Amino acid sequence: MTDFKASDRDVSRAIRSWLHEDRHEDASRVAGAVLDHVEATQGRRATWPAWRTPIMNRFITYGLVAAALVVVVIAGSQLLGSSDGGLGGQTTPTATPTPTATASPTQAAGLPEGPFALTDGSVGSGGVPATVTIPGPGWYGEPNGGVLCKGEDECADPPDGAGMIGPWFGEFYVYGDPCEWSTTTPDEPATTVDELVAALTNQASRNASAPVDVTLGGYEGKFITLHVPDEADFTTCDEDYFGSWALPGEASPSRYHQGPGQIDLLWIVDRDGVLTVMDASHYDQTPANDVDELRAIVESMTFE
Description:
seven-stranded antiparallel β-sheet; three-stranded antiparallel β-sheet
C-alpha cells in the first residue's frame, strides 16, 4: 500500500547530467533515460505531507513526465541549432523576449472561500468523500488530495506554519517512543477511539492533553492535543524521523513531524466502525487567526 515519489532535486540532477552528454544524440533517448530514472527513484520518501493517495501520485507522475518532455524540446533545439547543413556556416540564434509571469488575484489568494473536496471517496481516502469549508484567503491544496496548507510554500513547517492532513482511517500502530520508533512499534494496532487515545497519551515525550468529547461530521469521538518537544533533535531519531504512528504495511512512520515545537490537534472518531482521524498542526508562533481558521475548517467537515 506504500506509494512514493522521486524528489525534484533528483530529476533536475538527471536532466542536467543528460544535457551535458553529446549534443547530437537522439532526443528521444534522452527523454527515455529521464523516465527510466524516475522509475528507478520511486523508493524515495517525500517530506510533508506524510500522506499518500492515488490522486497525489498521478499528479506527481504527470509533473515528472512533463519534465521529460522539456528535455526533449531542449535536446531537439540543441541538435537543430548546432547543424550547419554541411556548409561550414554558423547559425546565430535570435533573441526572443521572455514573458514575465504574474500571479492573478485568485492565485495569490489561494483557494476560493466555500466548500472544498478534501477527499473523493477512493480507496486511498478511506472510501468516503470528505468536504470542508474554506473560511478565508490564503489556503492551498489539491482537490481530493487530503491536505490543506495556510500559505503556498511553508505549509506545516516551523516556526509558524499551519496545515492539516487526513482523514486517516483504519488501524494505527502507535510508537512507544516517536524518536526511537523502530524499536518501539507495538505488536498490535489501535483499532478503537479509546485505544488510539490511550496509546498517543502514553507516548513518550508528547505531553498530551486530557481527551475531551468531540463530534466530527456527525460522528462521536475524542479530541486531544499533542506536542513535539521544543528541544527535540530529529537527527538523533531513527532515520531522522519523529513519528506518531504507522499504518498497516508501513515499515517507517506514516505520520512523521516537521519540526520541534509542532502542535498537533487530533480529532479521533468512530465512523460506523472505522477509526478515523483528522490531524491539524501549528506552532506557538503561528498567527492566532490561522489557528482559528484551521480549527474551523476541520470542524466544518462532512462525510458523504
